[in-house]
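User: Okay, second chain of the day. Same drill as before: sequence in, structure tokens out.
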Amino acid sequence: MVKDSSNINKDIIEGAPFAALSYILFMCIFVLRYKKGNAFAYFHAKQGLVIFILEIVLWLVYSIIPIIGFFAGVGLLILFVFSCIGIFAGLMGKYTKFPLIYGIAEKIII
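Assistant: Same drill. Structure tokens below.
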């Protein structure tokens, strides 16, 4: 089944600011709650949720276990870069699939 291209463009235009917002800390929860009908914003919000959860886990590892903390710090830096790329991709109207993160986000059903 082929979706109407005007409907897809409408989702991207209306969802772009919310897609960008999805990568800023916990704001993905807001987008998941209130923009569920927008496929573009929903796609980015699910990836933003996975990044947010990974940031929390890595931050806890970084602060609790000093020996492994360096690697957790590198992981946090990588997630920060992914968030920046996601913000720009959302504003540009592009679907960007991040390695590993997209696979996890795809399985999220909310």
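The mean pLDDT is 88.

User: Thanks, on to the next one.
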